[in-house]
């Protein structure tokens, strides 16, 4: 795979129209500053060069779209989780590039064990220490339904990561039928939607969360965001030899050219947006049928709206507000520094 093959179509700057209203939390920049301090204190960021580049990554700005009306502590929790999620993605890349797959798998299992213990796990490794800190801040005081869902979605993320790594190690793209679920599971959108829900100030009951309409909204949100990112990150992922990209899957499986494959992904995103709209209409009927308190109904509507805001905000962030898809990730042999640390 050659990144030069897609340079002429410039997928990173392709605007993908989404009908959702993007709203940013007014203190997103402050959340960015605080997550930088948090990551540096834990050791997720160590070198001066990575510290200097961190604000240009813009994780606080991205996640401020997902909780535009949240209390400051809830926004910060969401931003810090995502700083950790992105760092873990970088570790996955580093492990594959450096042949440290055994070390990566050991770390992945330590993270899963830390989640199972709901934190309370001292560790010298900054990722495990970070997960422990986040669990200590997230789980206490939550209801049983939400706690079980969030832990399950974190487990799905880590399992998706392991499966994604297996495909990448084999240099094989999953088939189209399998790709959507694999990408969705490994993306962190599912646990993030739980945190978006939490930031509304209420927890949804299982009776609503597991109904088809809400499940379809979350799944569609994940697909829209993942596939949008696949377009914008295509050149960077081709350069890294990463086969986990929907455009690559379509080129390999259906024999499309690069421009046609990018257009096909954009068409699939539009279809998913329409399906999400249908699920929103079904959700309105579910809310009426279940007879839930008005506070829960309002939280469900805000959660769905904020998921849409996050998707639209990410589409903009991908193109204009982060160096993640254009700057070198790791230091190279020529003395160029990267934005990510070697943590494995």
TrEMBL record:
Alphabetized InterPro entries for the sequence: Isoprenoid_synthase_dom_sf (IPR008949), Terpene_cyclase-like_2 (IPR034686)
Keyword field contains Lyase: yes
Database matches in Pfam families: Terpene_syn_C_2
EC number of this enzyme: 4.2.3.-
Domain of life: Bacteria
GO terms, molecular function: metal ion binding; terpene synthase activity
Cofactor requirement: Mg(2+)
Keyword Metal-binding: yes
Keywords of the record: Lyase, Magnesium, Metal-binding
SUPFAM superfamilies: Terpenoid synthases
UniProt family annotation: Belongs to the terpene synthase family.
Protein name, as recorded: Terpene synthase
